[in-house]
């Protein structure tokens, strides 16, 4: 994932910062508890495509 791209990407819902999880190939929005997949180096920033993070799953 390009570092410059990571600096400008924000959550499409709350416009907050995203946490990059390299091992899971995801961008995480902590407040909205959403995980946006990264496929072939391209982040899929659609709410309908995002994985909802359950309350019991810890976000690090």
TrEMBL record:
Signal peptide interval: none
GO MF term list: ATP binding; lipid-A 4'-kinase activity
Gene Ontology CC terms, in alphabetical order: cytosol; membrane
UniProt xrefs under Pfam families: Trm112p (PF03966)
UniProt keyword Kinase, yes or no: yes
Classification via Gene3D superfamilies: 2.20.25.10
Pathway annotation from the record: Glycolipid biosynthesis; lipid IV(A) biosynthesis; lipid IV(A) from (3R)-3-hydroxytetradecanoyl-[acyl-carrier-protein] and UDP-N-acetyl-alpha-D-glucosamine: step 6/6
InterPro entries membership: Trm112-like
UniProt-listed GO biological process terms: lipid A biosynthetic process
Domain of life, source organism: Bacteria
Parts forming coiled coils: none
UniProt keyword list: ATP-binding, Kinase, Lipid A biosynthesis, Lipid biosynthesis, Lipid metabolism, Nucleotide-binding, Transferase
Glycoprotein as UniProt keyword: no
Catalysed reaction equations from the record: a lipid A disaccharide + ATP = a lipid IVA + ADP + H(+)
HAMAP family, sorted: UPF0434
Protein family per UniProt: In the C-terminal section; belongs to the UPF0434 family.
Record's function text: Transfers the gamma-phosphate of ATP to the 4'-position of a tetraacyldisaccharide 1-phosphate intermediate (termed DS-1-P) to form tetraacyldisaccharide 1,4'-bis-phosphate (lipid IVA).
Protein name according to UniProt: UPF0434 protein SAMN02743940_0767
Taxonomic lineage: Bacteria, Pseudomonadati, Pseudomonadota, Betaproteobacteria, Nitrosomonadales
